[in-house]
Amino acid sequence: MSERVALLEAPVPGEPERLRTQVLPKRSSAAPAPGAEPVPSSDVASDAASGAEDPAGPRLVTSVVAALLGLAAATVGLKVGAVAGVPLFAALVAAGLLVAVVPVLRRGRAGLAAFRPTAVDGVFVLYLVVRVAAELVDSGGLRGAQLGTVGDLAVSYAALWAARLAVGRPAELPRFLLVLVVTSVPVSVVAVLQIADVPRLNRLLVATTQSGGLADRLADGSDLRATSTIGHWTNLGGYLLGIITLGCLALTLGRSWRRSPGLLVVVGLAVVAQLATLTLAPVLVTVLVLVATARRLRLRAVALGAAALVVVVGALLLGGLVLNRVQDQLSRRSSSPGLTNLLPETIAYRVVIWRRETLPAIAERPWTGWGNGLYLPGSGTPRPAYLRWMSPESEWFRVAVQAGVPALLVLLALLLVVLLRLRRAARADGRWSLLVWYLSGLLVISCLHSHLSGRGTPLVLWVAVGVVLAAASAGWALPSPEPPSPAPRRALTGAAARTPFPTAAGVDRSRYVARREAAPMTDTRP
């Protein structure tokens, strides 16, 4: 037995309304046997399988861990607030890892599957071992070991695991990203207020954050560049780039807050703060991420207008500084002879440093480098006479100078494994491609900046990697956005009002209104 269902298609401007018919199996009206459990509908089963209604416990754990990790990434530059000699950001990451681990351990043997190692774990641990070994070797011939850089790497790895354990199901990911991105609001606000030259704000940041570059600019009257609570404009640019990417990813995932004006305002504020850093490389990658996001989203007019308003206001406030920065970096030419004279100043001076200082330092100690304290003021690390500039102006050269070429090769292998994992996830679901753009751009601009060795970028980066590993290990897909629910064309009465929407394959419930009528089908519309 079967029955016909009339499907009244929602009108398209300029086209008449159409009726479609479909033959569906007739449902049995027999009552279930005594004591038998009712069979859930396909919608209920799919919601249960996807974890759409997660318990309050996992939701709370997800939110708390995201808040702790977000606050840790936002406070990496603070000089105050150390807990028992441990930096505040490291203590926050440790607390987040503890909150994430305890519920998993309570599940007993079933929870141990969450700790299954991956290729990323293996190469990351190898990189830690190589960095420690190189530093111990350097400490014998140069000075005492300085493991601060290795400690930062360990904190980043702990953040990866905290995010990986906190996001156990698809329904928890939008909440995790939302809370994490919201923690960036104070950082963005402070960055914008810095450029607005709010009285005594910059002096307060010099006193409370590790921002020697800001102090120098205040002293010599140079153009201000936002550092916020991160401590340096380059590190702030890398931090905001990660926040913007995760915020854009959240826009493609959420149900209740998908395409919400509030989340777009947070992302727009981060974009304005990114402009306030006056660091062109992260700004360019930010533009690429935003373009990739725009291709995947059809933003509502109100939400798009809210974000555009924030960006326009920020551009009006910062437009002069940004234009001056672009003209200063791209119009001037190097005064050095040779090919560098043809390059913009922002590239040419780096080439001179690499040729005169960085490459000779690598050639002199290629296996273990000069130690982690080489570029730290007051570290006491012996320096070659030709090494005068206090930055290698490149992530890859920094690692090679500090820890040797083998450490650089392991780091590149780690990032390659992560990039391949992201590309595999993006092939399964195109929304992960935002992270592919993010990491690819970060690798390119790291040729000119030390993003991965600084504080700010690594925590956000490895939290994002932890989220991807959680999805890959559990084998779940990204949550599907909830389709819009159009208002019904007309009220249904009688048997039609009691008939649920058909769930057969090929029927889009959001575009049709079902009306159950006896065969043959007749159009009763006025």
From TrEMBL:
The keyword Transmembrane helix applies. InterPro entries: O-antigen_ligase-rel_domated, WaaL-like. One of its GO terms (molecular function) is ligase activity. Keywords: Ligase, Membrane, Transmembrane, Transmembrane helix. It is found in: Membrane. Residues 269-412 form the O-antigen ligase-related domain. GO terms for cellular component: membrane. It holds the Pfam family Wzy_C. The chain crosses the membrane at residues 60-78, 84-105, 117-134, 146-167, 176-196, 230-251, 263-290, 302-323, 396-420, 432-452, 459-478. Its main location: membrane. Residues 38-52 have a biased composition (Low complexity). Residues 1-55, 480-503 are annotated as: Disordered. It is a multi-pass membrane protein. This is O-Antigen ligase. It comes from Microlunatus flavus.
